[in-house]
Amino acid sequence: MKRIWPLLFLTLSLAAGELDFLPDPVATVDNVPISRNAVLERLHREKAISPDMKEPELLLRARRAVESEIYFFLLARFLGREGITPSESAAAAQLEMLEKLLPRGIPGRTQEELAALAASETYRYNVALQSFLLKNAPELLKVEDAEVERLYRLNRETFRVPEEYEFGVIRIRKDRPGAADLAETVRARLLQGEDFDRVARETDPAGAEMPDAEVIELLRKGNPALPVNSISGILENTEGYFIIKVKAKHPARYIALVEIAPYLRLQLVSEKAGRAFELILRRELANAKVEHFIK
């Protein structure tokens, strides 16, 4: 179970003329118009429609987009009265802080996805609302230790660190003269007790830059049960010959609750801010004059 905020960053090429049956404006909030272009832009951003959709489905998607425009208009107006403007920089700063609270960064998200999350409307407003609530209603964001522990139990597999290795790799490219014989000689030197790192520097001065996954795959095919501090046989792929030493092996483990608690606490704060948003929105809607013009 992952409780990560939604990402709203997909794009779609769509001609505005395909929805020109929508009125303009599509709605008003206290006589402030919600334009058709704003709705089209939202549908575009969220990849909510496609050129082959029929008019009934397009109307349904458009109505949902209008509701979103109204909701964010009301929330922006509410925050504006408090002198708060949602910003991508504030959202990015909170994500950076969250990453620093985790030994391996935020689980299940690439850097590109995190940048998109910081730019997303939903997350920017959530962070801005947290700022308001921490100042004006901190009790709404209060997180009990029991809540943190429960969230940890529910998400424990998310915080499992897989088995990790430290490798030494010597690569001898196959296009090197006498590559196969050199590989045999190098391995013999290592088996006689010569220092692996020194032999590696002499044999492959440029160093073998290989992702751990590729090293593990080579071992899986040639020496799947290589003990720590042992020297592999001569392994090969289409590029070259490889000799690998497993310098260290760290068993899989779960990140302890004490390590992960600050991250989980901030995640719960964000969820509570989301629930507070719903309450604020209901109040703002009750006090606003909203008119819809889509048939």
Protein architecture, described:
Helix content is 50%, strand content 12%. The protein has helices at residues 36-45, 55-81, 88-100, 111-119, 121-136, 145-154, 179-191, 196-203, 212-222, 257-286; strands at 27-29, 32-34, 160-161, 164-173, 235-236, 240-250, 253-254, 290-292. The protein has a 3-stranded antiparallel β-sheet. It is built from 10 helices and 8 strands. With 295 residues, the chain is of the alpha+beta class. Strand 1 and strand 2 (32-34) form a beta hairpin.
Task: Please write out the topology.
Layout: E1 27-29, E2 32-34, H1 36-45, H2 55-81, H3 88-100, H4 111-119, H5 121-136, H6 145-154, E3 160-161, E4 164-173, H7 179-191, H8 196-203, H9 212-222, E5 235-236, E6 240-250, E7 253-254, H10 257-286, E8 290-292
Antiparallel strand pairs: 1-2, 1-8, 3-7, 4-6, 5-6
Helix pairs in contact: 1-2, 2-5, 2-10, 3-4, 3-5, 5-10, 6-10
